[in-house]
Specification:
The complex is a heterodimer of chains A (748) and B (159). Chain A is 28% helix and 24% strand. Chain A is built from 19 helices and 29 strands. Chain A has a 7-stranded mixed beta sheet with strand order 11-12-9-19-16-17-18, sandwiched between helices. The N terminus of chain A is likely disordered. Chain B has 159 residues and is α+β, with helices and mostly antiparallel strands. Chain B has a 5-stranded mixed beta sheet, sandwiched between helices. In chain B, β3 and β4 form a beta hairpin. The mean pLDDT of chain B is 96. Classes of the chains: A alpha+beta (748), B alpha+beta (159). The interface between A and B is large, with 64 and 62 residues.
């Protein structure tokens, strides 16, 4: 392997662990807040209360920032309540959800709140990344305390004015109340700003029963701007004198530029400059390529069509999907892989003794993220600072990545967060920002790097494909007694599985069957891989939950009863799966779907459960399949336990979207590569589901008292197995290869 | 390069561009109307949908010379005024349709062309009219509901 192509440095590995982990029900990057880290900022024009976190900063340092309003909350003496959203808005609704959490503890009227996007400053704001559905759990306490501390100070100010004890004051509707008299927050703001900040550990947070805002439905705070076409996205950035850049890389990852027709390109209409960038050889930062800078996007795109590059592909990817499929077919004959990860009891013995056994070989493809906003970033080297406007999921981490890629100290880099036209995991990487920065370092003036759709699809960090050779057995009573999985995946460094290509020892059903063996074989790969919505879970849940259904079918059991039996007694398993919570959502989904009711001919119902990203989610799909294998998904019922809900509309929206994304992907999406080149280039070869094929999605939340988690991801993994189990119920055909189009299925 | 006269959102504008430039890039780069989005460049995704004399077209694949003399409506011109949004825009907000929001300008333009011709569309009518607009986030269920709501609002306004 080429060491320089190694995808993940330590920080990236840490990120992958964070966002792939289904385990922690508690924040993994929890921010300790104590009194000395909680400072207020005063001195705003007109007076008012501003409250900010200074995590990891001594008060002395923070005091220097007193006149910079980089905080969560600003209340002006005129009553305006401004809440800053620290997280990247990628379509998951965080710009509405985060401020709602603060407003709840503040007891503000939502209609009084104006939301602004916070600057990128992880020293002040802590985590400013969106991934792994971890935004809500990792910031829940931080944001609640931000609101509660402000509320406590406003109450103190009112109590002092009325000369009553604080215990006699209550808050609601953006005001402090004492009996029937009230003082609006705006009237108290300047006074509150002069009070000492209470200890974060001592402020009282609300009980769930006291919530006035959380759990109801709110429309997104930027929806008016979205529907009127306001410039919100990275690609919409405008600056005086802005030029457009394109950047051409080798179609096979790792190719270097030998030469290019730069002089010819520079003479084309509208072209300002063209040059080679050597890059640092990291796909996550800057790979070698040719930059073209032009007056307009069209001039840049047209010039790119004339670009001729002689690539040195000595060290470039030769990855071949057809070759990989052949190799996997040979490997499947072996009962186990190179490395045995888990060996509990004896799967081999139990398979021999089982009343019924089943074998299955499952294949799923690489897939692209294909967010609708192609990768882009605006960069401007000015006044000794490299300033970027970046549609990124990892605004905070991008600072270190840019610093590494561009050889600049972090203090010389300023990143502005824009709205993001779809994340899905693609924009956890900041390669496009590093490229824009590298181009801006060589051009006097602001440039907006814009990728074409073709570049976006062929230079992704793909959801990795994979193969599972499974064997399982049930005893005479139809109870699951054996499970063996040989997982064939990939490695870029020859040691570690690529992102999404690992299967942790605790993954279901490792702790739910007495005889369990998991082994893994890693094939070499250079094609970059990365997290894709519900990383790992998005593929393995289909395998595990489909094979589970193969076993219940072989045993002649009702699948709901079988799955509940496998879950067993309510208990917390290693990795965070709570079998009691699992059983609760399985029961809820089947009840709401009318599990067991008589269905028309050609219809079938399928059930699947998956735990990931701290969310317990069961789904039931009802499908019909005609003689031509045209499939219609009539309805998908989602039953979810993700703890309390912040914004009901947002949570529903994420589940509806996850179901449609899951169906869309399993139905027709795949990325293949030959000679290191990705073969799909645009949406005609990446047929994302269209409106006529959308299933009706019905979402139910248990709203347990467990800690809240995000729902952008965990609602996706159960979709594919629920639909495949329903196909089996409808026509008796077991789907073992995705996308469904491979087996002749299409959307009705 | 040549100077082209265009009629966009009721205003006469001129742009100094190569007449083969797709309308999309004239709107975005020359006129600063960035509400119309670039998604695929091949008329496959519908993110760049605008209206030409009321008909939905994919601005990424239509040369600007081809729409000279036509009335172009973009997302910036969909609302009657700052204070009066199009019923579709109101319905989109009420139903909290957008997730990432990137496709929604194109979705709204296609939906507005539909309602202009068919004020009470069925689900099948909606599916046919909206078939050219991809939503990567999967907001289709809400798009359909919002179009029905907007149709209701339009009927009320006329009544």
């Amino acid at each position: 392997m080429n060491a320089h192509l190694e995808l993940a440095d330590d920080d990236l590995r840490a990120l992958m662990r964070d966002i792939e982990g289904g385990a922690p029900a508690l924040p993994v990057r929890a921010i300790k807040i104590d009194r000395r880290h909680f400072l207020k900022l005063t001195g705003l024009a007109g007076g008012g209360l501003t409250l900010g976190f200074f995590v990891g900063m001594e008060p002395a340092h923070a005091a220097a920032a007193d006149f910079v309003p980089n905080a969560f909350l600003r209340i002006s003496s005129k009553g305006a309540i401004t809440i800053l959203n620290k997280g990247p808005e990628i379509g998951q609704g965080i710009k509405t959800a985060f401020p709602l959490i603060i407003a709840e503890e503040l007891d503000a009227n939502w209609s009084d709140v104006v939301v602004e996007q916070a600057p990128v400053n992880p020293t002040v704001y802590g985590n400013q990344s969106a991934g792994g559905s971890r935004s809500i759990p990792s910031s829940w306490d931080q944001l609640r305390k931000a609101g509660a501390i402000a509320r406590a100070m406003l109450v103190s100010a009112a109590a002092a004015q009325w000369k009553v004890p604080v215990e006699q004051c209550t808050t609601r509707d953006s005001a402090v109340w004492n009996g029937k008299r009230k003082l609006a927050y705006g009237a108290l703001a300047t006074k509150a700003a002069g009070l000492p900040v209470p200890d974060a550990a001592t402020v009282k947070l609300k009980e769930r029963g006291e919530y006035r805002l959380l759990g109801k439905s709110y429309t997104g705070v930027d929806n008016r701007k979205v529907v009127t076409g306001a410039p919100l996205f990275g690609i919409d950035q405008k600056l005086p004198g802005l030029k457009i850049a394109v950047y051409e890389k080798c179609p096979a990852t790792g190719g270097k530029v030998r030469s290019a027709n730069l002089e010819e390109i520079k003479k084309l209409p509208g072209v300002r400059d063209a040059f080679v960038i050597e890059g640092n050889g990291k796909p996550t930062e800057v790979m070698p390529g040719v930059a073209i800078i032009a007056d307009t996007t069209w001039a840049a795109f047209e010039a790119r069509k004339q670009l001729k590059v002689d690539w040195d592909e000595t060290a470039a990817s030769k990855d071949s999907w057809s070759g990989i499929v052949k190799r996997a077919a040979e490997l499947r004959k072996q009962p186990g892989g190179e490395t045995v990860t888990v060996n509990t009891g004896s799967a081999a013995e139990a398979l021999k003794g089982a009343a019924r056994t089943v074998e299955g070989f499952y294949t799923y493809p690489f897939v692209s993220h294909s967010p609708l906003e192609p990768q882009n970033c605006t960069a401007w080297n000015h006044d000794g600072i490299l300033e970027l406007w970046s549609p990124t999921q990892t605004a905070d981490r991008s600072l270190a990545t840019l610093s590494s890629a561009l050889g600049l100290p972090v203090e010389k880099i300023k990143v502005n967060q824009t709205r993001v036209g779809g994340g899905f995991g693609r924009r956890l990487m900041n390669d496009y920002a590093c490229e824009a920065g590298a181009i801006a370092q060589r051009y006097a003036g602001p440039v907006k790097l814009t990728w074409t759709r073709e570049q976006d699809m062929t230079h992704d960090f793909y959801r990795v494909g994979g193969f599972h050779s499974l064997a399982g057995g049930v005893d005479a009573a139809g109870k699951l007694v054996a499970w063996r999985n040989h997982f064939i995946s990939f490695s870029t460094d020859g040691k570690n599985p690529v992102s999404g290509g690992n299967l942790p020892a605790e993954e279901f059903p490792a702790q739910n069957v007495v005889n369990y063996q998991l082994s893994q074989t890693l094939l070499p790969l250079i094609t970059p891989c990365g997290p894709w919505r519900a990383p790992r879970s998005c593929s393995v849940a289909w395998v595990i939950q489909s094979f589970m259904h193969e076993l219940s079918a072989a045993a002649g059991r009702d699948h709901r009863d079988f799955l509940l039996e496998v879950m067993g007694e309510p208990r917390l398993l290693q990795g965070g799966l709570n079998t009691g919570r699992a059983a609760d959502v399985i029961k809820l989904a089947t009840e709401k779907a009318g599990w067991g009711r008589k269905l028309p001919d050609g219809h079938g119902m399928g059930l699947a459960f998956h735990f990931s990203h701290a969310g317990h989610i069961a789904e039931v799909a009802e499908v019909s399949v005609d003689a031509g294998r045209r499939i219609r998904v009539h309805r998908v019922v989602v039953a979810s336990d993700i703890g309390p809900i912040v914004n009901m509309s947002g949570a529903n929206n994420q589940c509806e979207g996850a179901v449609i994304d899951g169906f869309s992907t399993m139905l027709g999406l795949e990325i293949t590569m030959e000679n290191g080149r990705v073969e799909q280039s645009n949406f005609h070869q990446c047929p994302i589901l269209r409106i006529a094929s959308q299933p009706k999605v019905e979402v139910h939340f248990l709203q347990s008292d467990n800690p809240p988690t995000g729902v952008g991801e965990p609602a996706l993994p159960p979709v594919a197995p629920a639909i495949c189990n329903a196909i089996y119920a409808a026509i008796g055909h077991r789907v073992r290869t995705l996308p469904l189009a491979k087996e002749g299925f299409s959307a009705a | 390069m040549s100077t082209l006269s265009l009629r966009i959102n009721g205003k006469s504008l001129s742009a100094d561009v190569d007449p083969n430039t797709p309308l999309l890039w004239v709107l975005r780069d020359s006129l600063g109307l960035v509400g119309t989005k670039f998604g695929c460049g091949m008329a496959l995704c519908g993110a760049c949908t605008v209206l030409a004399d009321g008909e939905p077209i994919r601005a990424c694949s239509v040369p600007v010379s081809g729409v000279a003399g036509k009335n172009i409506t973009t997302i910036e011109g969909l609302a009657k005024s700052e204070t009066q949004l199009h019923p579709l825009q109101e319905a989109w907000i009420e139903h909290d349709v957008p997730q990432c929001g990137y496709c929604q300008a194109g979705q709204l333009m296609s939906a507005s062309a539909l309602l202009a011709k068919n004020p009470q569309p069925s689900d099948a009518d909606i599916d046919a009219a909206m078939a050219g607009n991809l939503c990567r986030c999967g907001t289709y269920q809400r798009i359909r509901a919002a179009i029905h709501t907007a149709a209701g609002k339009l009927a009320k306004r006329k009544a």
